[in-house]
Amino acid sequence: MRELTDVSEVSIESAILHKVSPHEPGLELSSRDIPLDQTRQFSVFLAGHVINGLNDSQTRTAHFLMQTHIGVAKLCEDLVLQPTRLVTASQRIAKALQGAMGNDERIAPGALVVAVCKGLTTTPFLALMKLDPGEVFRPEWRTDPQTSKRYLSPREMRNALPTVNQRLQKCAFVNPKPSPGDRERLLILDRQAHGMPANFFTEGFLQAEPMYDPATLTRAFYIAVQTARNKLAETLSPEQVTRLDDAITGVTSGESVDVNEWLKNLPREQRTEIRSQLEDRQIDPYITFDPEVLERLHRKERYEADNGVVIQFDRQAVGTTVKVQSRDKEGYRIVIDTDKWSRRSAP
After folding, report:
1. Do residues 187 and 211 touch, judged by C-beta distance below 8 A?
2. Which phi-psi region, left, alpha or beta, contains residue 303 (left: φ > 0; alpha: ψ -120 to 50)?
3. How far apart are CA 152 and CA 221, in angstroms?
4. Residues 86, 114: contact at Cβ < 8 Å?
5. How many of the other CB atoms lie within 10 Å of CB of 117?
6. Residue-wise pLDDT tens digits, 38-91
7. pLDDT (tens digit per residue) in 165-183
């Protein structure tokens, strides 16, 4: 099975809407799922949101803090494995989100969509999406004529739920039965808006956290691009290596990187190798760098040569004390121009 972030087409197997709000009337629960055969446009709308969310550069791999036999994690797993429990399980999920929102009026009211999804090459997975008011759909109450159960269903009108072209702010995708080697059991998009309470969605509602902290991601990204650089340097010209080094220095001089956007600026061969190294290390496509880690990484250059030779020096020594004079078929010629040359005592 392909990972969730590789999914390019999605069908919505079943879905239900609940209203959540820190204001009165607060939580409003549906008693049945949406009859998707009567709301084809809404199915397309939801599928578009799922694809956008999975491909958003800020969607992160995460893991549940609570064990999978309790909490939202358990509810999500049960819901995918037993779709007939959609109503009861989703109601409990909605109650958990309402509890995390509390009475904090900084949090916008909206609709919680709980949907069982299926990709062409994936097992069923769950999408939890908090949809804020927009311009396409607005939930309205309806009554099932056969069962008399009330439920929320979209009515097309202005000033309703967001369009597919608008970015989701809060969503999660749960894959309860990932294939071996697939790390994407939980993906979270938790876009933080200025003035909003931090992490009420990820920590308060889902009881989860990102798989990697900024320091770990920063080191992993740096190692991946340097590994790719060293492999590429075996076939690139000195000028091409210099340009690649400048690109790496430039991207790691900022506060963050959108990997996909950065790679677009590199030649295809370099782009392919760097992407391969990043994917091997399972690095998220959007990284906020840890400034202290970057400072340490930028302070020193370290190179390895034949016969166990290792050389380390301050970055500003490049081109002055340490010079790559030429490179030919027989290898590199490195010149060290220094007044001092002494054996370093062991630490």
Report:
1. no
2. beta
3. 44
4. yes
5. 24
6. 888 888 889 889 988 888 877 888 888 865 556 898 898 888 888 889 999 999
7. 677 889 999 987 665 445 5
Q: Name 162's Cβ contacts closer than 8 Å, sequence gap at least 6.
A: 49, 131, 132, 133, 134, 135, 136, 168
Q: Are 127 and 117 a contacting pair, CB within 8 Å?
A: yes
CA distance 264 to 347: 44
Residue 178, φ and ψ in degrees, nearest 5: -70, 150
Residue type, 91: Q
The residues, any chain, with a CB within 8 Å of residue 341's CB and separated by 6 or more, are none
Express each pLDDT in 235-289 by its tens digit.
999 889 889 999 998 999 888 899 989 999 999 999 999 999 988 877 878 888 8
Instruction: Report which secondary-structure segment, H or E, holds 210.
Output: strand 208-210
Residue bearing tokens 């990484």: 297
Q: What is the DSSP string of 146-194?
A: TT--EEEEEEE-SS-BPPTTSPPSEEEEE-SSPPTT--TTEEEEEPPPT
Rounded-to-integer distance, Cα 288 and Cα 216, Å: 11
Cα 295 to Cα 341: distance, rounded to the nearest angstrom:
27
